[in-house]
Specification:
Layout: H1 6-22, H2 24-33, H3 35-38, H4 41-44, E1 57-61, H5 65-81, E2 86-91, H6 94-103, E3 108-111, H7 117-127, E4 131-135, H8 141-149, E5 154-159, H9 163-170, H10 174-181, E6 185-188, H11 191-199, E7 207-209, H12 214-217, H13 229-233, E8 242-248, H14 252-264, E9 271-276, H15 282-290, E10 296-298, H16 299-304, E11 316-318, H17 325-329, E12 334-337, H18 350-354, E13 359-361, H19 369-377, E14 381-383, H20 387-398, H21 401-418, H22 421-436
Parallel strand pairs: 1-2, 1-4, 2-3, 4-5, 5-6, 6-7, 8-9, 8-12, 9-11, 10-11, 12-13, 13-14
Helix pairs in contact: 5-6, 5-22, 7-8, 8-10, 14-20
Amino acid sequence: MSSPSPLLSALLDLGYLAAAVAASPWILWRVATDARARTGLRERLGFPHRRAPIRPALWMHAVSVGEVQTGLPLLEAFQAAHPDWDRVLSTTTVTGQTVARSRRPDDRVVYFPLDWSGSVARAHDRLRPSAIVTVELELWPNFFLEAERRGIPLLIVNGRITERSVRRFRRLGPLVRRALRGVAAVCAQGSDHAERFRSLGVPPDRVQVTGNMKFDGAPRPSADPYAEPFVRRLGLRPGGTLWVGGSTHAPEEEILARVHAAVKTSRPGLRLVLVPRHPERADEVVKGVAAQGHRCYKSSLLTAASEPPQDLDDAVVVVDTVGELRKLYGVASLAFVGGSLVPHGGQNMLEPAAVGCPALFGPSVGNFRDIAEALTAAGAARIVPDAEALREAVAGLLARRDRLREMGEAGRRVVEEGRGATRRNLAVLEQAIAMGGTPPTPRSRHPDPFS
């Protein structure tokens, strides 16, 4: 296969430039007013600190928190099999960086470069990867083309793509098809995703179904979930009744607060903890919940306080830190998984199921359709089409402890039976490395002022 023409990257850069100029007022406003938009700017422009090319390196890219957690089992398995390799983990979001740095303190953690050809080439020059893995769907054409030019095997693992994304990528025509033509392998979650990748131009013999690594990344039940300091600081105790709104999006928090008020009239002592998908929304969520008459506290205030507030048992808690949701699922009687009563596509409902917490979610689950169908078919979860159905489900299930227990056990079985994709993906990755060898790194065509 011939190396990609530089003309392809030039065309992509022109397209990005046109989009940047059109959006420049918004971009400038966001950079000026939002510190997150300035975070990691040097790395995003292709200037991470140089990695000494003494050892080969695996570069894994995971856009945000969910993808980081999904990819970590593979990174850990690769480290165990290849301790002589360095590891680079990149993210796009600030929250993803926080989790990546916390979970992988010995790895190089960086921000992913913008998909300009210069930024991508400089990042390659500085990090010198020997193999690249992208988690789920991170299709950046210049990045893919640069890896192909350098002879670096690039794999998509836990690959998933919706019909909507396929239609969007098809608008870019041959550019996307050419970028995907050089992919070493696609490890798809299911046969429908595999077929969509083939339709976009991935050679059919490089696409295979290996399953969903989210099953492998799902937590194991803790022997004593109430021993977690975070859980204790929120005043959660054995024998209490807690339901959790996990990874919620606006206006789901206010819907859950209304449901909580209605159900609590017949269940005094019921607690609700809300965990917004984006913790920076915590102040907005607290304001909206308090406007409905609830006492409301941010979790960071509770963990910092020397003594808990006296009215904590009657208050709604909003979690404004990262990495706490799994701990809460472990002590919850019931969970609502967000991004599903709004047209977002849902969030990971395996996390509550893995620790035996029954799950409710709305009809918008396109990002997790296979998982949602498996859980509902097993009786481990229910779909609630609207706020009234959610109220009826919460009230009905909390009144039936035996049913909650059955749903929790069914969820654990589904998760355990679904594990194994990480092992299969590791085998594909090792095969791609063996076939490609350790590639040389050609000198970038783009100057590096930090050399």
